[in-house]
UniProtKB/TrEMBL annotation:
SMART domains: HTH_XRE. Pfam families: HTH_31. This is Helix-turn-helix transcriptional regulator. It comes from Streptomyces coryli. InterPro entries: Cro/C1-type_HTH, Lambda_DNA-bd_dom_sf. GO terms for molecular function: DNA binding. Residues 12-66 form the HTH cro/C1-type domain.
Length: 121
């Protein structure tokens, strides 16, 4: 499952570290507790839009830039998750629509929508 709060935190942390700034500096500038900002960066807390706005201001980052980067990462994560779930099903998961005996004791199993030949000894 893809968590938006984790992606937001990853992007915020990356932006902060690119600037060579510490959590303490950004939390002070954003007027957010150090512990809370740390939890946001680790994806453990959901940040309100007001909090995100304060953090973005402290990082001199437009909210739209933050959201664009998060959106790009979300799209990539969705593609990766989708690709991982698109595996070839094992023959055991097929619904058999027809079985035909072959002269050399082989069996052909045809699954609905696509034919898959399975050779059994």
């Amino acid at each position: 499952m893809i968590l938006l709060r984790r992606l937001l935190g990853d992007v915020l942390r990356r932006q902060r570290t690119r600037q060579g700034r510490t959590l303490r500096e950004v939390s002070s500038s954003a007027r957010v507790s150090l512990g809370y900002l740390s939890e946001v960066e680790r994806g453990q807390k959901e940040a309100s839009s007001e909090l995100l706005s304060s953090i973005c201001d402290a990082l001199d980052l437009r909210m739209s830039e933050l959201m664009r980067e998060v959106s790009d990462e979300l799209a990539l994560a969705e593609l990766a998750e989708s690709a991982a779930s698109e595996t070839i099903p094992s023959p055991m998961t097929f619904t058999v629509s027809s079985v035909t005996g072959m002269p050399d004791d082989r069996v052909t199993i045809k699954a609905p929508k696509e034919a898959v030949d399975v050779v059994a000894a």
